[in-house]
Write a structure and sequence with these properties.
Helix content: over 70%
Number of helices: 2
Number of strands: 0
Structural class: mainly alpha
Shape: rod-shaped
Largest sheet: none
Distance between the termini: 136 Å
Length: about 140
């Protein structure tokens, strides 16, 4: 019976060793899986971060381009309005300096130099006045 008991003990120890080895193998496999998952997750996060950075740069560049284009257009509009303002100031200065008599004298001189243009302008003005009067009636 001592022999059977020793065999049983040996079998139990062998079974325990097999269970321990299987457990060690399972733990090692789980560690490998966890490492692979961690590596892939880190790669995914790095890739997503890089893509987000690239998208952010793209949006930033497009916004800068739009701002620059808008700024250039606003500058052009500002320049044009400055020119209009300058011309209005010059016209006001001219009228103050020459008065109504000087303005009418310059207009008569212009009409004498360009009679065809004067005739066409008068015809257009007459047509526009006639249309505005007939539409009101």
């Amino acid at each position: 019976m001592a022999d059977t008991s020793k065999q049983t003990t040996n079998r139990i120890q062998e079974f325990g060793n097999q269970v321990g080895q299987a457990t060690s193998n399972a733990i090692e496999g789980m560690k490998n899986v966890a490492e692979n998952v961690t590596t892939r997750a880190n790669e995914f996060v790095a890739d997503a971060s890089k893509r987000a950075e690239t998208a952010g740069q793209y949006v930033s560049e497009r916004a800068d381009e739009a701002t620059m284009a808008f700024g250039e257009r606003m500058k052009a509009a500002g320049d044009a309005s400055a020119q209009v303002g300058q011309r209005l100031k010059e016209t006001g200065d001219y009228i103050e300096r020459e008065g109504v008599e000087g303005l009418s004298a310059d207009l008569l001189t212009l009409m004498k130099r360009n009679p065809t243009v004067t005739f066409v302008a008068g015809a257009c003005l007459g047509f526009c006045l006639a249309r505005s009067v007939s539409c009101r009636s």
